[in-house]
Amino acid sequence: MKIWQADFYRSPLQEVSGQVLWELLICDATRSFEYAATCPQSAANSSWVADQLQLAADEKLPDLIQVFRPQSLSLIQAAGRNLNINVEPTRRTLALKQWLQEKQYPLALDKPPPTPLPENLWGEEWRFATLQAGELVDVFAERLIPILSIPEFLKPINLGLASTLPIPGVVIYGGRRSLHLARWLEEARPVTLNYLAGAPDGLVLEAGLVDRWIVATFEDAEVVAAAKVYEQRKQQSQGLHFLLVQPDDSGMTYSGFWLLQVEK
């Protein structure tokens, strides 16, 4: 599959006349392919982007274009529809972000304050958990789980993690709402689940491109201590962690499982 990463946004550069420029940057995951083009703001539309995609492709258009910037998404999606190219919103555009950093272009995205999960979704209870890296994939890949997200690049073996390394995670017991919660999470597209100290402390789910959701808040000293261990283990596992949703603690059925990683 031919996959591109793309960004289309206002360039820090300007024409001699002072006119604002927009810049399209395209690369693949290894940056063995790179393409850049600029246009005046008055020409920054999906038709221009579609024309540039065809020029960049030379002969074969990509099967998928990945986009991390919300402001770029609608224009690139419209161009993709015109050319029958799928466009995926994702924060995992590491090669493109590296290129932008080298060009000293701003990468920071405006993120809204975290929002509590809808009350009709929340489960009955939750806890921190760990699984050995060597067991993490096998335990869940072999089970019939309605929603299962184990990206190849996040498998512990592909990150070079020792099989005995404890991988931290969070388990939510959803009761009757378990599958409903898992389906909502699938649509939200989880990225990483972080402990944030505050008043009170909490767990915040980063999802989609810029969405943030409050999964839980707590003040209990033992839970705070467990949360700090959870973050320490994430540092030891290259940011790898997991989220598991199941109806109860029987271990008989699971509703959803996601391998996650701290954003790079």
From TrEMBL:
Coiled coil, from the record: none
InterPro entries assigned: Tab2-like (IPR009472), Tab2-like_C (IPR046761), Tab2-like_N (IPR046760)
Transmembrane segments: none
Domain RNA-binding protein Tab2/Atab2 C-terminal residue range list: 106-261
Domain RNA-binding protein Tab2-like N-terminal: 3-103
Pfam families membership: Tab2-like_C, Tab2-like_N
Single annotated GO MF: RNA binding
PANTHER family in the cross-refs: PROTEIN TAB2 HOMOLOG, CHLOROPLASTIC (PTHR34556:SF2), PTHR34556
Protein name: DUF1092 domain-containing protein
Organism: Nostoc minutum NIES-26
